[in-house]
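Review box. Two proteins, two foldings.
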Amino acid sequence: MTKPTIKLMPTGVPNLDAVLGGGFPIYSLNILAGAPGTGKTILVQQILFNTIENQPHKRALYLSTLSEPTLKVVRYMQHFQFFDAQVFGEQVIYSDIGSFLIEQPMPRLADHIVGLVNQHQAEVIVIDSFKAIADLTEKSGDFRRFCYELSVRLASARCTTFLVSESDPSQINYSAEFALADGIIYLSTHEEAGEQRRWLQVHKLRGLAPYMEPFPFVITNVGVRILSPTLTLRQKSVSWSVPAGRMVMGIPGLDQLLRGGIPYGRSIILSGVAGTGKTTFGLQFLMAGVDRGEKGLLFSFEETPSHLSQMAAGFGWDLERLIQQEMLRIVFVTQTNIRVEEHLDQIAQEIASFQPQRFVVDSISVLFYKVNNRAIQREKTFQLATLMQQIGGVGIFISGIPAHETGHLSSFGVEETIVDGMIVLSKELVGRRRDRYLEVFKMRASDHVCGSHRMAITENGIEILYSASQISPPSTTESLKFIEDAP
């Protein structure tokens, strides 16, 4: 016997339906709560317009009470892309019930609201603000009866309801409307990683299994967007496809140290103090991929595209030509504009759209420089690493080591435990000359040559300096494994 399923109303808000488990159940009563200025009205308006988009038979009703006049709501909403002047007044109907609320007794208010729903044949209704009704009700018992009657009658009218409420989290536990609601979405603002962020959290959604943790979101001219790195990982986690074999790094001498390259789906920390060649390494890795028909994506939080092009030209690499050929994409973000959650989301979106095989972040030291919490540093590094596993590519995450902390392996001391491999670049003053070194410090579940090796930056890029006789051959078992992994 087939079990009945709950029919859902998608919101069309980027990534919100993934958080909810597909959308809101139709005919449900939902509360969007939060302090003033958290984005409640924008979110509910976006849901209204998205719901009736390309559906000329649908009607939505927006009722304002005693919070923000309808005229002001319309004035501000029309600047968002979701606002459609062609359906305003015809399919999305605005009505002010503030005067009725003041002049008429509470029992008549439910009749008036249901009458408007029937008059306009609305399938979706918003009451903003619902808290204003509670504030004008003298007896809590009267308000509870009103909430119950309204929820039953609107569901009977086959209408999906959204109540907007200026509430703090403590009110969720004792206010009547929250007890009766089918869904509770709470919006808030607080600081994380040195940034003031907006957050959305599902506290309740009957009949569904939503994600219950807080999700960051932004408000742009498009409207609300739930930032999605975590959602992207979860939605794709069942369909990972990592190619067999190894990716050739293309840096002379390095693939010999790596016994043929780096296994696909791996993420690598490339660390070192200033001047050891980290950015050059990243560019050379991308150029080697282009030579093999592999697309490369570079997120630069330090060097501008023009500076990178000049640097690359010194080695004979034409970045602008490769960008025009759509074999290379460079995304530059200035340090002053970094917003960790937003740019992790942007990285996920760029990877999804460009689908590179090689990916470089230069550098995670700058990307995460506002993050002081080690647990958050680990979480964000893990998100980047898992993106590489999903697309089956190889990611190089550059990490700068402060000059006075040469005993450290990375900027924050947690990255090396998350990623699959670690390559450390260093330099040493020998007489009046500084020699450069490269060490494959870690390569999870993959044989590699240990120890530091001299390297040089030549007119062709980085080269590892050693004789072939210095590289010990792998054991028989390791040789067989290498042959199996080799492309």
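Next protein.
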Amino acid sequence: CSRECEETYAVCINESKNVEGSRRVEGLSDFFKAIIYKDYAYIMADKQILEWTREKYQKYKMEWFCKFENLRALDKKLFEYNHRIFDTHIYYLPDTDATEFEFDLEGITDEDNSLEVILMDESAINKLVKSEGFDRNSFIHALPGSKTQPDVIAAALKFNGKIVAIAGASKDSEDFRQIGVDVLPDFQGAGLGVYLVTMLKNQIIENGQIPYYGTSESHSISRLLAVRSGFVPAWCEVFSKEI
């Protein structure tokens, strides 16, 4: 990456390569990847499109990278090489200045009902998903079961002995833990997701790792949950996938 490109235009464009210990996403390609932080961008492109990428983006206003006009042009170029844009995501990191959302478990229960919060490590998660009667499809964002990004820690809430909400985190690299959350429909809107994500975020930090949260630009409910759980928007990422 040239000094002019990086220092003058705040863009660094390099050839794609596998970096040991880097964050991985199952099923996605290293053919093209872009990370945009504020007005700075780091782009990795396969050697087949490296020259095209540099010509197009070395002086590009990166804060506008996800405009549909640009994504359409990029997708068209990727399609020439049997790839396509898979997704664009906004990622959140912990906000050290955030005021945590206060939640009272006793406020949604009474003497006839009970609530229990449990924290699970990787072993306990594996035992849970194999247990009879557990429907993993109801908690697919919390415990996706990726081979390259194993589920390693989770916080679950039981209502009268039944799990109704789970926040789980996958090991995306040695340092990064990505949080996902699911709440059963009958229990949504009570703040359970915020409570569990906040709890899990704090536990991951205490364990010495970095929690982060990703969602779609159009998923306003998920974005609000991230903010209420003490996260702040940090970067945008564009992924590619082989067709």
